[in-house]
Design brief:
This protein is mainly beta and about 120 residues long. The protein is built from no helices and 11 strands. The radius of gyration is 14 Å and the shape is globular.
C-alpha cells in the first residue's frame, strides 16, 4: 500500500509564496509520475504540475513561470514552490502518484491554500 502525506499550505497575501511538500511511502515502483492537482470550490480538479521519475516536468499554463515542481527520487518526495500567488490560486491542493505500468493512482489528503489580502 502506498501513502502520500502532504505538508505546507495555508494563508498568504497576493504576491506571496508558499511551498507544498509531499512524501510517499510504501511499495513504490521506481518508474512513476508525481504531480500536484488542485480543486477550487465549485470547480473540477485540475492538474497544476507533474514530474516523471525521468525528470520531465509539465505545468498548467496558469502557473507557468510562477510555480516550480521538484522531486527527490531516493526519498520519494515532491515539492511545489509557489511564487507570486494570486487569489485565483486558492484551492485545495492534492499530491498524486501515478504508476503507469500498473495503472495505479494514489492521492494525498489535500491541503488548503488560500490567497487573500
Amino acid at each position: 500500500q502506498v501513502q502520500l502525506v502532504e505538508s505546507g499550505g495555508g494563508l498568504v497575501q497576493p504576491g506571496g509564496s508558499l511551498r507544498l511538500s509531499c512524501a510517499a511511502s510504501g511499495n513504490i515502483f521506481s518508474i512513476n509520475t508525481m504531480a500536484w492537482h488542485r480543486q477550487a470550490p465549485g470547480k473540477e480538479r485540475e492538474l497544476v504540475a507533474s514530474t516523471t521519475s525521468g525528470g520531465r516536468t509539465n505545468y498548467a499554463d496558469s502557473v507557468k513561470g510562477r510555480f516550480t515542481i521538484s522531486r527527490d527520487n531516493p526519498k520519494n518526495t515532491v515539492d511545489l514552490q509557489m511564487n507570486n500567488l494570486k487569489p485565483e490560486d486558492t484551492a485545495v491542493y492534492y499530491c498524486n502518484l501515478d504508476i503507469p505500468l500498473s495503472g495505479q493512482r494514489y492521492w494525498g489528503q489535500g491541503n488548503q491554500v488560500t490567497v487573500s489580502s
